[in-house]
Amino acid sequence: MLRKTVTESFGATIEGLKASHLTETVVERSKRMILDTLGVGLLGTNTSVFKKILQVHSMDFDDTWYPATHPSGAVLPAVLALAEVLPQQSKPSGMDLLLAFNVGIEVQGRLMRFSKEASNIPKRFHPPAVVGTMGSAAATSKLLHMGSAQYREVLAIAASYSGAPMANAATQTKPLHIGNAARRGLEASYLALLGLEGNKNILDMKSGFGAFYTDYTPDMLLGLDSYRWVLEDQDVAIKRFPAHLGMHWVADAATALRMKLLEENLPVVKIKKVVLKVPDARYVKRPFPASEHEARHSFQFNTCTALVDGSISEESFSDLNLHRQEIRDLLEKVLIENPHDNHSNFDTMYCEVGVEMHTGETITERCNTFYRHWREPLSQYDLLKKFKANASTVLSMEAVQGIIDTVANLEKVTDCAVLSSYLQVKEKTN
């Protein structure tokens, strides 16, 4: 049947997508995203942010997509929470969970592709608070088996819950954005289930979901006969250390440059000047970060840390490391340049790190694509290594392995509650 509006086509697609539409690529990519997000969430329970507000997106360590957002963090907690409270006769299987999760990811991907502005590093709204809320709503309503008309109400309600300003990036408040996206999307589903109504053309209107983008141009979704998922064509980036994605370019370039310094027996203390050629993304230009959250969003700090230590890890953002004198001294020497060809875009950007030594030598390294970017995905071995390192901080190794095995075979699991059972944090045993 011909759909008259974009919102109507979204409702019909959310209702119509079945497990049979999931391709092998989509299943495998989404299982990697689920495993990584679980590990990051478990590690997040150790942070001060978690202790304050009891939520687990407290570091910039989860997957990043293109156009820019963190797709999994807004969806996975919501569907797992919903799966736990559904009555026994309605308990979802692992395949039900995979389908709902991918519907939530898909809705985010489709909505971001209605704006060219969304392709760039954001300036006004933090994307997970915008499309993440819609993704959570779509995923949880799918798990509740609503009808196409109800899905439209869900999206309308969720749109009124969406949006958070970029000004709170690099603060302890930023983690609220994605936590609220997950929670409010689930709430929107329940409100629609209770009969609450919203604008039935919310995705079609500039004053609707289009309010978040100056160049919003929505389009109808295609039919389901030969449906192709966004995740089929666009993989995610999975980070190796907890910081803004842009930091991974400067870290790779600075680490490679440090190797050259070592080979030529040139100590870091002899650096006279550091020049960074990076995109013009102002909220990640922080010359002297005063907190761990600012440090996670500082081209300068991550460059200097990689030059001094040769790597970046979770510990790099501790207060002790943040205020090391050798880092502070090096920060004084950093200059930022914004080449016209270096666009503020995670798909096309590059980072170049150059140093001038007091002895006169100049050395430069450039990173166009870092390992774990969607163009160079991390191996399954490294994914498991990251998960184990994160999850083992709070879970026993038996539970860690249980999660790995369950996610690996999720499409065969009859009751996805088994996954939640492993996530119960208990005292670890050796």
Could you please describe the fold and organization of this structure?
- The protein has 430 residues and is mainly α.
- The protein contains 17 helices and four strands.
- The chain has a four-stranded mixed sheet.
- Strand 3 and strand 4 form a beta hairpin.
- The N and C termini lie far apart (59 Å).
Mean pLDDT: 93
Number of H- or I-type helical stretches: 17
Q: Give the low-confidence spans.
A: none
Relative strand content: 5-15%
Order of helices and strands: HHHHHHHHHHEHHHHEEEHHH
Q: What's the main sheet like?
A: 4 strands, mixed
- Range of helix content: 40-55%
Please report the total strand number as a whole number: 4
**Euclidean distance between termini CA atoms:** 59 Å
Rg, alpha carbons: 22 Å
Topology:
Layout: H1 6-16, H2 24-44, H3 48-53, H4 76-85, H5 94-112, H6 127-143, H7 148-160, H8 174-193, H9 230-233, H10 247-263, E1 271-277, H11 292-295, H12 299-309, H13 319-322, H14 325-331, E2 334-337, E3 351-357, E4 362-367, H15 380-391, H16 397-408, H17 417-422
Parallel strand pairs: 1-2
Antiparallel strand pairs: 1-3, 3-4
Helix pairs in contact: 1-7, 2-15, 2-16, 4-6, 4-8, 5-6, 6-7, 6-8, 7-8, 10-12, 12-14, 15-16
